[in-house]
Automatic annotation (TrEMBL), chains A, B:
PANTHER family: CYTOCHROME B561 FAMILY PROTEIN, EXPRESSED, CYTOCHROME B561-RELATED
InterPro entries in UniProt: CYB561/CYBRD1-like (IPR043205), Cyt_b561/ferric_Rdtase_TM (IPR006593)
Stored SMART domains: B561
The protein's required cofactors: heme b
The keyword tRNA-binding is annotated on this UniProt entry: no
GO cellular component, one term: membrane
Domain Cytochrome b561, first and last residues per copy: 24-221
Membrane topology, record value: Multi-pass membrane protein
Record PROSITE patterns: CYTOCHROME_B561 (PS50939)
Record carries keyword Cell membrane: no
Name of this chain's protein: Cytochrome b561 domain-containing protein
Gene3D superfamilies in the record: 1.20.120.1770
Gene Ontology molecular-function annotations: metal ion binding; oxidoreductase activity
Length: 228, 228
């Protein structure tokens, strides 16, 4: 049951390039993840949701948002076409990794609220928080929509084929919104960094997140999910 | 000479919805532009590139970036399919409005550097500046590529048809990068706002910029520039 088989084309030159771009995305994934860890462990004193230090509670937020909400979503997007298994398994990995990302995103929002509690700061004041909440909410809706339309049996094949392009477009748009929210968060921390070195590290992390997002989007585009 | 005629489809239900989404984008354009003016004139004391007050020099930057680099680019994207004229005119407006946007973007970068000069602040320190410079540079390349491939005569029709999807995808990606850069800039100013009212106004402006970008992207997607 290859859903949207007419949309997600395979084979040919584009597909080979797409595989190489996806491989580059994995490298960018690892680089970003390591940069984020160096920042939080070396410059910001560690990650602990149950700490008495509000800053350590806060550090949970960028950690799970970067790993969960940005990197896992990208990998879930790539998994749909790149895992060398049958299409049913690809779909399951796509769905499950997105679910883990959603749970981590909700945990990341919780960490931000808990930090505000501990630091006696108001919630949902910054543009970062508005964009982030919007991204998590839309992502949750998108996951639910996808689960009912594409995973559970009972939806007509023709309905699925018609809904697939909207699913791909909305998914990429929400991914870009999440990246946008991440960049606004990093900018806040970069401006408040304790040293020029820390600020540079944060900026470089932001650039790598962007490159990762572009690599994922290009891999999807080359898979002809978009064009034909 | 309808370039990419097989890609940019017309007519039908999707096209009517696309026209309505494009109309909504124009309303979002006006709202965003007015919010930006209220912010700069009412809260930040006016816009003047030749002022002795560094803040008034700075205000030129968000003004031309919002109007030029975000709003005009969106309108240029929409113009390609929505202006009720022959396709050659649509293309010319698309090309010329993008050129004005590019010139304004370069002027906006100049304003930021001039502000740093006047305020004795270092250049290109923030993640916002890195993302913004990247967006302007890529936009300039994209414009040059489009000018030679699609505007000047001499390129084979088949080459143009093959390059059109990449032009659309790269254009939307650069537009999203520009929006991302704008949001990071607004976040910096929101965090440093003089009052809670000003911060809220900046945040709302950021949300409207995002909604505008989404409306433009959806209008393009519905025009079938993407899917078929």
């Amino acid at each position: 049951m290859a859903i949207g088989g007419g949309i997600i084309g395979g084979g040919g030159h584009h597909s080979a390039v797409a595989a190489r771009v996806a491989a580059a995305a994995h490298v960018l994934f690892l680089t970003t993840a390591v940069l984020m860890l160096v920042w939080l462990l070396h410059f910001r004193g560690g990650i602990n949701i149950q700490s008495d230090d509000p800053e350590q509670i806060f550090n949970v937020h960028p950690f799970v948002m970067c790993w969960g909400f940005i990197l896992l979503i990208g990998e879930a997007i790539l998994a749909y076409t790149t895992i060398p298994m049958d299409h049913r398994t690809q779909k399951m990995v796509h769905m499950l990794v997105h679910l883990v990302a959603l749970i981590l995103a909700i945990f990341g929002v919780y960490a931000a609220f808990k930090f505000h509690d501990a630091a006696v700061a108001p919630d949902l004041v910054s543009l970062h928080s508005w964009l982030g909440i919007l991204a998590v909410a839309l992502f949750g809706l998108q996951w639910l929509f996808g689960f009912f339309a594409f995973w559970l049996p009972g939806t007509h094949e023709r309905t699925r084929a018609a809904a697939a392009p909207a699913h791909v477009a909305a998914g990429l748009a929400i991914f870009m919104l999440a990246v946008c929210a991440a960049e606004t968060g990093l900018v806040q921390k970069s401006a408040a960094a304790a040293s020029a070195g820390e600020a540079k590290l944060i900026n470089v992390t932001g650039i790598f997140i962007l490159l990762y997002a572009v690599a994922v989007a290009v891999a999807v585009a080359l898979r002809k999910a978009f064009f034909y």
